[in-house]
From TrEMBL:
GO terms for molecular function: kinase activity. SUPFAM superfamilies: Ribokinase-like. It comes from Flavobacterium macacae. Residues 20-281 form the Carbohydrate kinase PfkB domain. Keywords: Kinase, Transferase. The lineage of its organism: Bacteria, Pseudomonadati, Bacteroidota, Flavobacteriia, Flavobacteriales. This is Sugar kinase.
Length: 309
């Protein structure tokens, strides 16, 4: 079975949307990526850190999804990373109210020996130095390295972020962050600038407006499924990244054509994530529901225009 190595935060989140409010619940980029990637036939592991305030029941949830957590360090006496966000009425934009790095502040990641030859490495949102350190520990060049990041790291660790961006094949980033990173308003120009920073493939996520995949002069667009109920977009980007990287790891095909399917899988899984608060929906999600919604994606985008000669 192919191996997927996942790096990212495992966190407590406090979220407020127009539909409600939660106190500290399970969150974190690696958590969402792992739950999403568990829908594929891959062997996955998370590299991250939590404090001893992190409940055993959350660790059990990850292992119940066949996620290897031997690289998830538990710091005795430490506090888990905490993030709090407030969504605006359109649910497409949010304000970060609080970010407490806690145990993440001096985290030294250790890649489990069994994953130093992982086929795909998904560098989820976390300090760029931690992302780089994971790449340094790989003993075999992965077939694909994917990176996700956030404006927080552009604000506080830009040189380190630019260093790790140089080393990856694919970057997934949202539209606002792509504009911040490049200073370009046009997403086509922003993607072109990001290509010159290193990644051959650039995925720009546009929330409820879908996602764009850029590779040299080629562009592909995947819509987001129009949903009746959207409660909480937290983790949608990470769930997308988990679907993207999980699908690529399973299919062993890193061509542009296959990446189109990967962004459809990512969008499909993300469409479930937003239906409930936090990880709640991803925890109950069944294979049959995933397949059924893929049909809806197909129907949404298929058309048969005959082009005039
Ligand atoms: P998304 O909605 O996909 O951007 O991801 C939200 C998740 O990212 C939440 O569960 C947070 O715990 C986590 N998160 C928020 N801020 C950061 C940060 N600066 N670095 C890493 N993870 C973060």
């Amino acid at each position: 079975m192919n191996k997927l190595l996942i790096v990212g935060t495992v966190a407590f989140d406090a979220i407020e949307t127009p539909f409600g409010k939660t106190d500290k619940i399970l969150g974190g980029a690696a958590t969402y990526i792992g739950l999403s990637a568990s829908h594929f036939n891959v062997k996955s592991a998370i590299v991250s850190v939590v404090g001893d305030d992190f409940p055993q029941e959350y660790l059990d949830l990850l292992t119940s999804r066949n996620i290897d957590i031997s690289g998830l360090e538990v710091v005795q006496g430490g506090k888990t990373f905490f993030w709090s966000g407030l969504y605006h009425n359109d649910l497409n934009s949010r304000d970060t109210l609080d970010t407490q790095l806690n145990v993440l502040a001096d985290f030294q990641p250790k890649v489990p020996q069994d994953f130093k030859d992982a086929d795909v490495v998904m560098l989820g949102n976390l300090h760029p130095l931690v992302q780089s350190s994971v790449l340094d520990q790989m003993e075999k060049q992965p077939k694909l390295v994917v990176l996700d990041t956030m404006n927080f790291w552009m604000d506080c660790a830009l040189p380190e972020l630019l260093d790790v961006i140089k080393r990856v094949d694919v970057i997934t980033i949202n539209d606002e962050e792509a504009r911040q990173l490049t200073g370009e308003y046009s997403l086509v120009k922003a993607a072109a600038k990001i290509h010159t920073m290193g990644p051959k493939y650039v995925v720009i996520k546009k929330g409820e407006h879908g996602a764009l995949l850029f590779h040299q002069k080629e562009i592909f667009f995947a819509p987001a499924l129009p949903l009746e109920e959207v409660f909480d977009p937290t983790g949608a980007g990470d769930t997308f990244a988990g679907g993207f990287s999980g699908f690529i790891a399973q299919s062993e095909n890193v061509s542009f054509g296959n990446m189109k399917n990967a962004i459809i899988y990512g969008s499909n899984l993300a469409s479930f994530c937003v239906e409930k608060f936090g990880t709640e929906r991803m925890v109950t999600l069944e294979k049959a529901e995933v397949q059924q919604r893929l049909q809806q994606f197909k129907a949404l985008t298929q058309f048969d225009i005959v082009l005039e000669k």
